[in-house]
Amino acid sequence: MKKTIALLTGGTTGEWVVSVKSAATIAQNIDTNLYDVYKIMLNDNGWFYEPADSFKIEVDKNDFSLNFDGRKIKFDGVFIAIHGSPGEDGKLQGYFDMLHIPYTTCDALTSSITMNKGYTKSIVAGIDNLYTAKSIQIFKNENYDLKQIKQDLRLPYFVKPNSGGSSIGMSKVKHADDLESALEKAFKEDTQVLIEEFVSGREFSIGVFKAKGEITVLPTTEVIPENEFFDYEAKYTPGATQEITPGEMTEEEFARVHQIVKDVYSKLNCRGVVRIDYFLEDETGKFYFIEINTIPGQTATSFIPQQVAAMGLSLKEFYTGLMKETLG
Which reaction does this enzyme catalyse, per its entry (predicted)? Predict the structure, then answer.
C-alpha cells in the first residue's frame, strides 16, 4: 500500500530559494508507485499545499493534516527539504516528534547542535585523525575584543555566521582592518559569529547516509572555486566552480577520510543523508573538518545528486532507500 508523504519546502531564511530547487529535484525522483507526495510550502505567510498556481490549502498545524477534495489527508512521513530555519535547526523535527510523524532528517537535538558551527566543532574535536582550524566564537550583544582576536588568530581568516548555510554572510579576511566590516556582514545573518584561521588545502565535500542499517559514504567531490572561496555565487552558479566527482585521493587518504566521516556521522547521531565539508591540508594531508550539513542541497548543481550518480545509483533508488530507512 502506498504511503502518503509530505515534501516540505521553503523556509524563513534566504536559503528558501535553494530549498525550492531541492524539492523540485526530489519530487521528480520519488517513486510514485510507493509514495503519494504532497509538496507543502512553508514560509512567513503560513504552511500551504498548492495543487494549482492560484490555489492554496492551508495545513492544519494541530495535527499536520490537509482538508482537500472533501477528505482529511494525514501523512505517514515527511521529507524535509528546508535548508536553514526551521527545517535544519531542529524546530520542525521537535514539532513532528510531538505528533509522532517520522521524517527523513537527523533528530531535533542533532539538527539544533549541528546548525551551530562552533558547538559542532567542539563535539567532533575528539575524533581520531580529525583536526579543526583554530577559531573564536563571538556573540552579537556581548563585548568582544577585536585587538585580542587579531593577536590570537593568524591571518587570513574566515568570518562565518555560526548558524548560516549556503555561505551567506561569509567573508575571507586577508587584512586585519577588514575584520570589522566582515563581522557586520556576518552579524546581519546571525547573533553568533565564528572567526576561523584559514587552512591551506584542497577542499572536499562528501555525502554520508544510512541505508539498511549501514553507514555508507558517497564518492567525494573536490571543490576548486574560481572565486576566492566557495561562496554563495560559487555554490549556485553553474561553471563558477570546478567540481570533480569522485575527487582524487590516495588509497590512504580514502580509507582515513571514510573512517573519519563515519565517526562524525556516528558521534553526532545523524540520520538520513548529511554532507561533510573538509580540507586535506597542503604539505601534511591532515583532515580538517569545516562543517556538516544535515539537509544538504539536492538541486541540479548540488553535490549529493552528483555523488549518487558517481556511485552508480539513480536518485529514485537513493531517495527510496533513504525514505525506507527513516520513514519506515
Answer: 2 D-alanine + ATP = D-alanyl-D-alanine + ADP + phosphate + H(+)
